[in-house]
Design goal:
Blueprint (H helix, E strand, L loop, with lengths): L8 H7 L10 H6 L2 H23 L8 H14 L1 H33 L1 H14 L8 H8 L3 H25 L3 H9 L4 H39 L8 H10 L3 H29 L1 H4 L4
């Protein structure tokens, strides 16, 4: 009778060499930080900007970063740039929220009815390729020289991007997830709010980001053409006025403000929404 050999799993595991996790060095740990790498990219771009402007030596074509920062600080200290930025953001908030609301209504109708789906697809295919700024002349005729014209073109720039992504996200929700809602007897708006929106939120948030970017660019471009609204110009008008006075550092200061506002909204607003929704719900795609 052959002898039986009993192996102790713990002994077998302990027999092998212990593998200790490799510790990162100080430089490697710093370089692995995303914020540090992005900061280094910004610093590199700043150095390139300053070097090229000094090499060119023509402040009317391309001012140095130093002159731009001076103009930015001066405009902020005088209160002109903050007031112009605030004027643009107020109009942007009205147009963006209106566009998102209309997109939500269209998408809810589309997801519940066949006719609604056909309507959304037809309208999107028709109007989405049309640049929002191209509608500004018609908006001026229809709504006059006021905020209404700007809000109209903003709604157009937001509506189709948000509606497209939201509808696409709803349609990509799995049948299993849908059946969960049906088993709980969820119907109508409750079904959309409890099942479809959480499951499709990564795509919806992408649409909201795209809509925001379209709206912000459209507003600045419209203000460059449109000018003063209700006696107060926005950020685009600040850039236009600075260009007319050949104050090119202020032009670049206005453009830098446009970029900074975009970065703030992306980093604070949308990242916060993503952290409290997509990451919390565990529905990252």
């Amino acid at each position: 009778m052959s002898a039986m050999i009993h192996l102790n799993p713990d002994a077998a595991l302990s027999a092998g060499p212990e593998i200790e996790p490799r510790r990162m060095g100080t430089l490697e740990a710093i370089w692995s930080n995303t914020a540090f790498r992005k900061t280094m990219i910004l610093v590199l771009l700043a150095v390139i900007w300053e070097s090229y402007a000094r090499y060119l030596g023509n402040p009317l074509l391309f001012p140095t970063l130093t002159d731009t920062i001076k103009a930015l600080v001066s405009s902020i200290a005088s209160g002109v740039l903050p007031s112009r930025t605030w004027a643009s953001l107020k109009i942007l908030a009205i147009g963006y929220s209106s566009g998102v609301l209309l997109a939500a209504v269209l998408t809810i109708v589309a997801i519940n009815t066949r006719l609604g789906t056909d309507l959304l697809e037809t309208l999107t295919a028709t109007f989405n390729p049309l640049p929002a700024i191209a509608l500004l002349p018609l908006a001026l005729i229809w709504f006059g020289l006021g905020i209404g014209s700007l809000v109209f073109v903003l709604i157009h720039s937001v509506l189709w991007a948000v509606a497209l992504n939201t509808h696409s996200g709803f349609r990509s929700v799995s049948q299993t997830t849908r059946m969960v809602g049906w088993n709980y007897e969820l119907r109508g708006l409750r079904y959309v709010a409890k099942i479809l929106i959480p499951a499709a939120f990564p795509t919806i948030l992408t649409g909201l980001k795209i809509g925001w970017a379209f709206a912000w660019r459209t507003l600045i471009a419209a203000e460059l053409v449109f000018g003063v609204s209700s006696g107060q110009g926005g950020l685009g008008w600040f850039i236009f006025e600075s260009r007319n006075m050949l104050n090119i550092p202020s032009v670049f200061a206005g453009l830098l403000t446009v970029i900074v506002v975009g970065l703030i909204v992306e980093s604070l607003v949308f990242k916060t929404i993503e952290r409290h929704t997509i990451q919390k719900w565990g529905v990252q795609s």
